[in-house]
Amino acid sequence: MLVLRSGLTKALASRTLAPQVCSSFATGPRQYDGTFYEFRTYYLKPSNMNAFMENLKKNIHLRTSYSELVGFWSVEFGGRMNKVFHIWKYDNFAHRAEVRKALANCKEWQEQSIIPNLARIDKQETEITYLIPWSKLEKPPKEVHVLWWNESADSHAAGRHKSHEDPRVVAAVRESVNYLVSQQNMLLIPASFSPLK
């Protein structure tokens, strides 16, 4: 289970408030090397969600032969339903351009996945992100990986409740809430082919 929390703040500086964060991403020019991560979100037509996922499960090997898939999830709740979220790793922007060109020329990928799935997608969004300098992306000790790690939705809710009783968290939230413009939480369920669960 993955809980993704995204927020828009008035200030560029950010704080890590909870010790359960496994990896942190930032947008903007904070990277020290060329490596970046592309967050892609596809909004699917409800009647096509299962067909989209089955097609991708069968053909994902064609896509992953060009660049590294970090993870692939579907939204369980939080925002619009029938949505998938995936993360791809690139060495730099030239690498991404090479991959995009190679995929456009890969007849098998185009015919088996892109053409059938394109009609199933309502909307697409993409965002370029970087790991913040002091974090690293790792495989977790269990078969569950989240940006905020939890055994279940219930344990996530219990942890949030407990953190609201911690005076340090309460003080940090009070201090930073003035910078928050919006925030969205999503519970994401990993696809069977997702490297990170």
Automatic annotation (TrEMBL):
InterPro entries: Dimeric_a/b-barrel, NIPSNAP, NipSnap_domain. Pfam families: NIPSNAP (PF07978). GO terms for biological process: mitophagy. Gene3D superfamilies: 3.30.70.100. It comes from Gorilla gorilla gorilla. This is Nipsnap homolog 3B. Belongs to the NipSnap family. The gene is LOC101151107. The lineage of its organism: Eukaryota, Metazoa, Chordata, Craniata, Vertebrata. SUPFAM superfamilies: Dimeric alpha+beta barrel. Residues 37-136, 143-195 form the NIPSNAP domain.
